[in-house]
What does this fold into?
Amino acid sequence: MYKIDKLNELAKVVAAKRAENAALEPRRMTAEEKDDLLAHFHPDYKQEEFTVLSAGVNKGDKVPTQLAALLQGKSRISASDVDLSAPDYDTDVLIIGGGGAGASAAIEADEAGVKAMIVTKLRIGDANTMMAEGGIQAADKPNDSPTIHFLDAFGGGHFAAKPELVKKLVTKAPEAIQWLNKLGVEFDKEADGTMVTTHGGGTSRKRMHAAKDYSGAEIMRTLRDEVINRGIPVVDFTAAVEIILDENGKAAGAVLMNMETKELLVARAKTVIIATGGAGRLHYQGFPTSNHYGATADGPDRYRLS
Ligand SMILES: Cc1cc2nc3c(=O)[nH]c(=O)nc-3n(C[C@H](O)[C@H](O)[C@H](O)COP(=O)(O)OP(=O)(O)OC[C@H]3O[C@@H](n4cnc5c(N)ncnc54)[C@H](O)[C@@H]3O)c2cc1C
It folds into this structure.
């Protein structure tokens, strides 16, 4: 732990370098230098850490070995642990996950007049959505179009994305912004009500729609209110641990686990929507260490911060 004397000493070092650092205009890296940097430090570039899935709908996809071990691992429960003939919940649409995607799906299902329920591991809104800051991109200004947005997004992803998914993203984005706006999300606006749009990373047009620097919290606040106001049932502190399949192999519900009591429950549904977000907390390749983010003996010294 640092002592106050040591911190004061470091503060003096920072102050002495301030003018020099403020005037510093770092040279832009070339494409080769960027690739070299990524190859040394970015987990996605460590080929020996990847494997190919041997089962399931994503069979053949290359994924981190730890994700493969989870997806292809043995179930945490056995068939005799649950009684499928006596479900604890019966619904039309079972939505797993209480973030932005789950709440939006529930609102749309309710709007369509079907019975929906959300089960979520923590509380509704305890989700990555709440933490997003920058905003959402949507090509809705006269100088922009979903086609230009597609080129920015697909190129920005080094052409590795699934084009049909990028197409869906860019063509549906303006509609999604309007949907959120009508629900009451307080997007940044000009005095005349026009949406303020700014540049995001890698964009050739200003298409970022934000609510100050708490866009996700504002979106989640609005969606959560809407779910609650509509009386859509939310079962919180409950994780889905298995998807139940019917005789045709179609999802027909889920086995749920109460996170506090570890009790297993069965939810039967005509449709199951998995809205459990990404997998960032899985910490693929272990926790970040200096090997990932700082220069060490096995990395090039020229990237060391001084
Ligand atoms: C710090 C931060 C900043 C970000 N900034 C931006 C940004 O500026 N712009 C942008 O577009 N994106 C941003 N993102 C990404 C964006 O927030 C996410 O892509 C998006 O919110 C995902 O929404 P989601 O509903 O799919 O998932 P989440 O919001 O993660 O919701 C998933 C939900 O599923 C629940 N869950 C998970 N597993 C289970 C289970 N087995 N059973 C039951 N429930 C489960 C979780 O508890 C959670 O409630 C940011 C993310 C972070 C973390």
In short: The first strand starts at residue 50 and ends at 52. Residues 163-183 form the longest helix (21 residues). The chain has a mean pLDDT of 91. Residues 96-102, 119-122, 126-129, 131-136, 216, 239-240, 275-277 surround flavin-adenine dinucleotide (CB under 6 Å).
